[in-house]
């Protein structure tokens, strides 16, 4: 006995309807999960951007402080040079005074030594400040990289959202097909 496959049966309609319902439910659950996760991802990306802005402001403030510190070190170096010149002048005057200027000569040597120490420390501090500036520039570059990644992240999430919209449209179309098939089967049953 051959079966006429062109005529729908109630059992095949029920099986088709159940398969469509199951598929639609799975799609709805997956879409909701994607939406929920994309919301979290967008919030995290926005938080990264906010942290970047805060870090950028702090880095800029740090750069200002480094520049101010460098200016102070330059002033200390200038004062050390002037002190050294005063020490040299004092040593010259002590030499002119002969034995009477012996005590003055000791003071002049100490002033020159203090000036030399101040100059050396100023150079050392300036080197440390330059190193800190270099490190801050590196941190700034890393922050810029993080922001670029966060922006890429946001674009990817937006792509996911668009894909979810397409899935939602496809689900709506599946519902319409299911309803159409249901009406067709109901019409066929009425004709039988």
How is the topology of this model organized?
Layout: H1 10-97, H2 102-191
Could you write a compact summary of the structure shown?
By secondary structure, the protein is mainly α.
CATH superfamily: Methyl-accepting chemotaxis protein
DSSP summary: helix tally: 2
H/E element sequence: HH
Judging by the overall fold, what is the CATH architecture? Orthogonal Bundle
Mean pLDDT over all positions: 83
Distance between the termini: 21 Å
General form? rod-shaped
How much of the residues is beta strand, in percent? under 5%
Helix content estimate: over 70%
Low-confidence stretches: 1-5
Gyration radius over CA: 41 Å
- The tally of beta strands, per DSSP, is 0
Q: Please name the CATH topology.
A: Helix Hairpins
Helix/sheet category: mainly alpha
Number of domains: 1
What does this molecule look like?
It is a single chain. This protein is mostly helical and 192 residues long. The protein has a single domain (34-169), classed as Orthogonal Bundle (Helix Hairpins). Helix content is 93%, strand content 0%. Helix 1 runs antiparallel to helix 2. The longest helix has 90 residues, at 102-191. The model is unreliable at 1-5 (pLDDT under 50).
Keywords for this structure?
192 residues, mainly alpha, Helix Hairpins, 93% helix, rod-shaped
């Amino acid at each position: 006995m051959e079966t006429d496959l062109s005529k729908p049966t109630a059992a095949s309609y029920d099986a088709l309807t159940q398969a469509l319902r199951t598929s639609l439910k799975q799609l709805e659950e997956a879409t909701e999960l994607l939406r929920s996760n994309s919301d979290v991802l967008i919030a995290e990306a926005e938080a990264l951007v906010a942290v970047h802005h805060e870090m950028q402001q702090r880095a800029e403030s740090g750069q200002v402080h480094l520049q101010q510190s460098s200016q102070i070190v330059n002033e200390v170096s200038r004062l050390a040079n002037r002190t050294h010149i005063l020490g040299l002048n004092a040593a010259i005057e002590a030499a002119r005074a002969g034995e009477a200027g012996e005590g003055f000569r000791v003071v002049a040597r100490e002033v020159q030594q203090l000036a030399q120490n101040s100059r050396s420390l100023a150079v050392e501090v300036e080197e440390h400040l330059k190193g800190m500036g270099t490190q801050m520039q590196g941190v700034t570059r890393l922050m810029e990289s993080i922001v670029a990644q966060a922006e890429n992240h946001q674009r990817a999430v937006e792509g996911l959202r668009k894909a979810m919209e397409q899935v939602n449209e496809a689900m709506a179309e599946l519902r319409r097909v299911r309803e159409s098939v249901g009406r067709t089967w109901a019409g066929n049953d009425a004709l039988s």
